[in-house]
Structure formats: C-alpha cells, structure tokens
C-alpha cells in the first residue's frame, strides 16, 4: 500500500489507517476481543501499517488489544494514540502517555494526539501552552515521535502550532460531513499538516448497509450521530442511490468508494474502523482505486445532496 509522509516528519503512514474505537467496546455493541484482534492482525497483513487508538477507548482496552496483537511486529507498525480532554494538565499528559505506553507494550508512540480541545465534555480548561509543554517534553525524551491534534478548529490548531510542530489534524471527514474543508483544511495544506479523516464512511452510512427503517441496538453511540436524524437520513438514502452506480462502474463496494474519495483529497488519509478481518481486507482494497476527475465531481455532487442541508457544525454527534 502507498506510504505517505506524516506532516513534515520522517514517519511514513498508509493512506488507509486501521481505526480501533470499536476495540474499546464502550459505546459499541457486539464487539468480540478475539475477532477484533484478528481484524487488527489482518490490517497488518493487508499492508496497513498505521493503527489509531486512544486512552479513552474502553479506558485503555483498545490500546491493550493492539499491544497484545502486534507486539511481535512493533518495529513494522505506526501507533497513533490520544490523550483525552480531562488529562491536559502538564502532569496528567505525562501520566496518560506512560499508561498508553504500558498498554501498547512499547517504549514509544509514533503519533501522540490531543483528542479534544481543553474544556470539551465539561473538562477543566487548561491553556494549550501547558499541554504542549508536556507534549514537547515527551517528544524530546523519545517517548513520542510526533504531535497531532484531533477535533480542533483552525483557530485552535493555529494556537497549538505556536508552541510546537503539529504534524496532523484528525477531524470527522467524509462525503457526508465536510466542515473541515471550510475551516482547517486550507491551513493544513499550506503548512504540510496531514489530515487523518475519521468516520470516512460516516460511521457505516456510506456503506449502504443501513436501510430506510434501520434501528440501532441500545447502547450503540451511532444513534446520536446527526446524520441519522430523520431529515438527514432521508437525504442520505437518496444520495446513496446516486452514488451506487459509480461504485458499480469501478467494481467497488459503497464503503470502498467512500474511502477512495477521502484519500483522493489533498493531504488526507482515512481512518477506517472494522469489526472483523473481512471488513479490514475490504477497506484496504480501497487504496487501489484510481478515481477519474469526472467521477470525483459526480461523487461530490452526490455528497452535496446531504451536506448542503447541514448546519456549519464540526461535531458529528449530538450527545
């Protein structure tokens, strides 16, 4: 699989990244540890070298599954983890990083990211200068190799960049959720900051597997996704009808088409989650697609059937 530079660092990541929120189990249903472990290993075997996780995914459970699964090939993979919004004070960043290192069974994390801006989810406000001081210290010590941020606006990203080199921004980004294009993407392109798009398949919506009357099981966080609200969901179903013939022309699944579109955007890689090895292999295949310009335009037009009616809101969920 094609390798791309992470920002201006010497780290090389794959255009498709394995996402492991689901491996933490919390806010998901029907997740099996053994099956997830096989999926993570299948990602490695399929050429995906980059695994994204976070301390908050099951309170470290996702990280521990990754550590157990890939410890024998640690030198061949890129680990990206995140410190949560309630751990952004200097000492707490250091402590959180050490916990993640232990969970991942490693002595360094390739990309360490600030998961949400300070103050998110009712967390205590901590000046970004303090958080970045800890991140820079961890980098100087070799415990992390690069610094990234997640869910930051352009203004927040620019402020963080005043205190250290930021290599990546991780926003929600898909055909059906494109706020980052209006906000931080131009800044990222100008400053060689890689965009790591999460929910590139709109949490499964772009796979086409959810019918008009779909109901989520109790405890599934996707029920809070704004795209699943009735008016938006109706538009999604209409857009999928327009996109399906394009996928068929390329002999791609709907999910693969969605991933191929994301990684065709400037400076952007896609974080794709999966519940099993079969889904991982399907995701990896999307990296081989070569979409023509006219088809990219047609795909965008399909996406706008949804995005033209959304409010300018960076947050994908209504918690």
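^ structure tokens above, recovered residues below v
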């Amino acid at each position: 699989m094609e390798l791309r530079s992470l920002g201006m660092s010497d780290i090389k990541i794959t255009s498709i990244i394995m996402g492991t929120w689901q491996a933490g189990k919390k806010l998901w249903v029907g997740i099996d540890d053994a099956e997830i472990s096989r999926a993570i290993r299948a990602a490695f075997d399929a050429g995906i070298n980059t695994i994204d996780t976070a301390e908050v995914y099951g309170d470290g459970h996702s990280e521990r599954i990754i550590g157990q699964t890939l410890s024998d090939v640690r030198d061949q993979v890129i680990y990206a983890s995140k410190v949560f919004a309630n751990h952004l004070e200097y000492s707490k960043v250091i402590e959180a990083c050490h916990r993640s290192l232990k969970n991942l069974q490693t002595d360094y994390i390739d990309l360490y990211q600030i998961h949400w801006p300070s103050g998110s989810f009712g967390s205590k406000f901590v000046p970004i200068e303090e958080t970045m001081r800890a991140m820079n210290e961890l980098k100087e010590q070799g415990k992390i190799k690069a610094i990234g941020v997640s869910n930051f606006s352009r203004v927040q990203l620019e402020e963080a960049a005043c205190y250290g080199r930021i290599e990546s921004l991780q926003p929600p980004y898909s055909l059906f959720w494109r706020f980052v294009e209006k906000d931080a993407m131009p800044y990222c392109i100008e400053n060689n900051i890689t965009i790591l798009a999460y929910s590139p398949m709109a949490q499964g919506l772009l796979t086409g597997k959810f019918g008009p009357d779909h109901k989520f099981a109790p405890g599934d966080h996707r029920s809070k996704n704004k795209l699943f609200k009735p008016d938006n969901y109706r538009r999604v179903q209409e857009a999928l009808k327009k996109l399906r013939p394009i996928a068929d022309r390329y002999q791609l699944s709907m999910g693969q088409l969605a991933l191929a579109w994301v990684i065709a955007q400037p400076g952007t890689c896609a974080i794709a989650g999966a519940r099993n090895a079969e889904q991982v292999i399907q995701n990896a295949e999307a990296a081989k697609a070569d979409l023509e310009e006219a088809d990219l335009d047609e795909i965008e037009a399909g996406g706008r059937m949804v995005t033209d009616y959304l409010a300018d809101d960076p947050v994908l969920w209504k918690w």
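The domain at 3-207+254-290 is CATH 3.20.20.100 (TIM Barrel).
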